Amino acid sequence: MYGLVQKLAAEFIGTFSVVFVAAGAICADRYLQLQNQPSFGLVGIALAYGLATAIMVVAFAHVSGGHLNPAVTIALWVTRRLGTLQSLFYCVAQLLGSLAAAYLLAAIIPEQVWRPLGMGTPDLATDFTRLHAMVLEGILAFLVVLAYFATVLDDRGAFAKVAGFAVGLMVMADVLLGAPFVGASAANPARSFGTALVSRHWQNQGVFWVGPLFGGVIAGVVYDRLFLGDQPPS
């Protein structure tokens, strides 16, 4: 069994890695454009984010559960599958990992590349309201958390040993759908927070917390009630 410090370290490192790759891919795509070179576009950004998530969940699921997203952690807390104090510590570790990744990107990548993009901090499309954005973010989070519960948490998941790849694929799909409307955070408040703080881009930041947390809680409760009735919280 792993101790709390090891679990928090796993959440920090995992979230750091995901945010570093996800936000870094957006900056890299912009750099290629500035250099008049072929860029990889939305598909490449989604692939980078999804693969990073999949690999980190697989890497750390046996240590901390591989949440890497406060929406997942809060869903587990609401369904009483994670204690209150541990849930709080997990969220703090995730936010610190995201912040560390954003600061490192800012130190490495030229400011003229990442500053105009807000380092990939999500925001709303010009004709998208906050209500529409929260609903979309909620649905995207619902799908990610549902995939997590069904593959990582549920012992009967078909591919338990590589369950993180299902979560990563869902993150990739979320980016492809959500990026044109609400940015490419894939309903992960930690992913939104780190780059927002470093770039000082706070517009509509509340949308990227309320929507994902609400959608994640609904997904957790739905899966818990429908499919985990015979697996009560420990």
CATH architecture tag: Up-down Bundle
Overall outline: globular
Report low-confidence residues grouped into runs of 5 or more: none
Sketch the topology as an H/E string, one letter per element: HHHHHHHHH
What's the CATH class label? Mainly Alpha
How far apart are the first and last residues' alpha carbons, in Å? 15 Å
Rg over alpha carbons:
17 Å
CATH topology: Glycerol uptake facilitator protein
The total count of helices amounts to 9
Number of domains: 1
CATH homologous superfamily label: Glycerol uptake facilitator protein
User: In terms of structural class, how would the helical and strand content be classed?
Assistant: mainly alpha
- Beta-sheet strand percentage? under 5%
Biggest sheet record = none
Describe this structure in words.
- This protein is an all-alpha fold and 234 residues long.
- The chain has one domain (4-227): Up-down Bundle (Glycerol uptake facilitator protein), CATH 1.20.1080.10.
- 70% of the residues lie in helices and 0% in strands.
- The chain has helices at residues 4-34, 41-60, 70-78, 84-108, 111-114, 130-153, 164-182, 189-199, 207-227.
- It starts with a helix and ends in a 7-residue tail after the last helix.
Structure described in brief:
The chain has helices at 4-34, 41-60, 70-78, 84-108, 111-114, 130-153, 164-182, 189-199, 207-227. The chain has 234 residues and is mainly α.
